[in-house]
Amino acid sequence: MPRTPSICHLIQWPEQSEASDTYSVIDPAHLKPVASVPDMDTPDVKQAISLAHTAQKHWARKTARERATVLHKWYQLCMHNQSDLAKIMTIECGKPLAESMGEVAYGSSFLRWFAEEASRAYGDVIPENAKGRRLLAIKQPVGVVAAITPWNFPNAMIARKVAPAIAAGCSIIVKPSAETPLSALAMAYLGEEAGLPPGVFNVVTASKGSAKRIGNEMTENALVRKITFTGSTAVGKLLSKQAASTMKKVSMELGGNAPFIVFDDADIDAAVTGCIASKFRNTGQTCVCANRVFVHSKIYDTFAAKLSAKIREMEVGHGLEPGNQFGPLITSDAFDKVVRHVEDAVGKGAKVLLGGKPHGLGGNFYEPTVLTGVTNEMLLAREETFGPVAGLIRFETESEVTKAANDTPFGLAAYFYTKDAGRIFRLSEALEYGIVGVNEGIVSTEVAPFGGIKESGLGREGSKYGMDDYMEIKYICIGGIKETLDA
Ligand code: NAP
After folding, report:
1. Is pTM beyond 0.90 here?
2. For 7-25, what is the mean pLDDT?
C-alpha cells in the first residue's frame, strides 16, 4: 500500500498565524513553536457532541464486520505512515524517535485488536426462570463518548479509547492535551482516509486553560453517555464528580507511584535493564514508570553501580537526532517538579550517584539521575516524579518491602525481580496494583487488560475486557411463550 501523501502537510513549519482563534504548539526540546492549531472552546465542543450524536446512530447500524473493515484499514494506514506519525510525536512531546516509532506501533495495535474484537461482542441466552419465558442479555454501544487524554503518549492513549469505542458502535470526541494536538489530528486524518464517516471520530484542540470548560461541557452534556479520561488523579476525581450530574459511565486511567523491587536472588543485570526500561522510558514520564526502586541490602551497592554505569552510556538530546535515548521534560513546570524532588531528597539525606542537576543543554533538559539512601518519607517516594530520577530505597525482608510498596493511595503498576517461584505467586497476589510485572520492566500490550486500582482509576483498556467499557448490557425478557408444540 502506498504511503498517504505526506500527512506532515497538516503541520506547517515553523510558525503559522497568531490569530486569536489558534494557539502555538511548542517543541519542548527547542522551546520553539512548530505549528498552530484551532483554539476551540465550549461552543465547538457542543457542536462536536451534536455531530457525534447524529453520526453514532448510523454507525451503530453498521454490521460489526463493516466497522472492523474500517478499523483494519486505519491500522494499515497508521503503520504505513509510522515514521511520519513518529516524527510528529517527537516534535510535539520530545520523546526519542525510536520510542515514538514504538508508540505508533503500540497505539495502532489497538486499532487491529478491536477490529477483531468487534465481531465478538457476544451476549448471552440465559436459562429461563419460569415457564413461558426466554431471557436474553445483549450488548449495545453506550452512544456518544467523550475522551480527554494526556501528552505523554499522544497516540496510544487516544487509540486505546477510540478503537474499542468505534468497534462497539459508539462515536467519540477527543480532547487531546494542549501540548500534543498534532498526533491526534494526524490520526483523525488517517481515520478519515480509512473510511470513518464524518462525526464518528472528532478532535477538539484547545490551548491550556480551556480544558476545564471543555471538561464541564463533556461531563454535563446529556448527549454524552460516557466519559473516558487518562491523566492525573486530581483531574480524574474532578471529572468523576462532574460526570455524576448526568450519571455517565466513567473510565479513569490515572496516576501511579510504581514500586520496582529487586530481591537478592534476582538476575541483577536483567533487573538493571528492566529498571532502565521502566523508569527512564519517555525520560521518566510514563504512568507506569517505576517511581520507587526498592533494592535488597545485600545487592544494593552492586545494583546502584551497574544501573549508574549503564545510564551514563546513554545520550541526552533532541529526540529527532539519532542515538539520543533521553529527551527533554515536557514543560518548565515538569522540570521544576524534578528539581524540587531531587532537592528535597538530597536535603533529607539522599546521595547523588549520577546526575542530580539540570543538563548542560539547558531548557527543559535534566540529567538522568540516580540517588541512593532514599527513604519512603521523601517527596520522590510519595508523589509521581515524572522525570529521569531513580531513587533507590534499601530493604531487608519480603514483608517489609510489600508493606512499603503498598503504602500509597495509588495502584497502577508494580514490578519485582526474583527467581523464587513461591515469592512470584505470593507477591503478585499481595501487591495492591492493577498490573504486576515479574522479571519484566515493560508489560503493556493490547492483548492484556491495562488499568489501575485505588486512586489510579477505574476500568480496563485493551484485551477482551476493553470493549465492555463502551457497551451497555440490555436484559430482554420475552414472556407468553406456549411451551407445547402446535399449541
Ligand atoms: P493532566 O494534567 O491531568 O491532563 C490530562 C488531560 O486533562 C489533558 O488533556 C488536560 O488538558 C486535561 N485537563 C486538565 N485539567 C482539566 C480539567 N480541569 N478538566 C478537564 N480536563 C482537564 O495530566 P498530564 O500532566 O497531561 O499527564 C500526566 C498524568 O497522566 C500523570 O499523572 C500520569 O500518571 C497520568 N497518565 C496515566 C495513564 C494511565 O493509563 N493510567 C497513562 C498516561 C498518563 P491540558 O493539556 O489542556 O491541560
Report:
1. yes
2. 54
